[in-house]
Structures are given as C-alpha cells and as structure tokens.
Design brief:
By secondary structure, the chain is mainly α. It has 1 helix and no strands.
Length: 48
C-alpha cells in the first residue's frame, strides 16, 4: 500500500527533475544561439 506522502514525494521529485531538464534544455539552446552569434562575430572580424 502506497501512502499519500510517498505519492507526494514522487510527484515532487518528478516535477523537479522535469524542471531541471527543461532548464538544461533551455541553457543548451541558449548556448547554441550564443555560439552562433560568436561564430558570426568572429567571421565578420576575420573578414575585416
């Protein structure tokens, strides 16, 4: 038999892991965008 507290802790753990995952994905996407910007700025600097 599963108690309500166990269910609650599982839900909390799942939500926190989801949040961490979304944050990680967002940071990865942000890093990709930042990397592209850096590459573009480097390319324009090299042309000069």
């Amino acid at each position: 038999m599963i108690t309500n507290s166990q269910v609650a802790t599982r839900l909390v753990r799942a939500s926190t892991s989801l949040r961490k995952g979304s944050v990680r994905a967002a940071s990865l996407i942000g890093n990709e965008k930042a990397g592209k910007k850096v590459q573009m700025s480097w390319g324009s600097a090299m042309r000069r």
